[in-house]
Amino acid sequence: MMNTLKHPVTGELKVLRSRFICSLYPATDPETARQKLSEHTARYADATHNCYAYICGLKQETIYYSDAGEPGGTAGKPILNVLLRHELTNVLAVVTRYYGGIKLGVKGLIEAYGNAVENGIANAELIVARQLVQFRITCEYTLLEMLKHKISEFAGEFGEPVYAQRVTLAVAIPREFRQSFTEILDGYHSQSRLDYYVE
């Protein structure tokens, strides 16, 4: 059974004055992984390297990794191997390195990148990876808190609300709860209090 992250998390490691920061992000699809990677590299633009790996899909269908300028095989693959060993999916791992002036060698780099990811996972709250259904909901302001509560009840997740004349919410619900959640939405839709579509 595959696991994933409940929340983003970090772990850190120092090796011979080099600093390795592992950031782990939930990412249910490659597009999300690439977006989070882009945001991360912008945030750590001053780093020597931002090496990464991501795995998406309940059967780990999508796997990608990059050494991002480190010698081939010393960063991306060790990061990926730790994720695979822990049977994780729907996850992006980025290890940001600030070079400390002492070369670590191939073996040292492999160990450092792998251990940084181990430290990140040790800090993580893991949950069972589920197949999610994506909803986009536009509703009255007065329904927002109730919707958030229901989403939590169904073990779902949601993004930042977009406030306009009504509130728009991107929501992901585990597939097994799709029908029950849809019935609640249909009830409010019939009263013209919200609109939704399944992405």
Output the structural class. alpha+beta
- As a whole number of angstroms, the C-alpha radius of gyration is 20 Å
Percent of residues in beta strands: 25-35%
Sequence stretches where pLDDT stays below 50 over 5 or more residues: none
CATH fold-type name of the largest domain: Ribosomal Protein S5, domain 2
Give the fraction of residues assigned to helices.
Answer: 25-40%
Mean pLDDT, nearest integer? 92
Lateral arrangement of strands in the main beta sheet: 2-3-6-4-5
Reported for the largest beta sheet, the result is: 5 strands, antiparallel
Number of domains: 2
CATH level 4 superfamily of the largest domain: Impact, N-terminal domain
Spatial separation of the terminal alpha carbons = 26 Å
CATH class of the largest domain: Alpha Beta
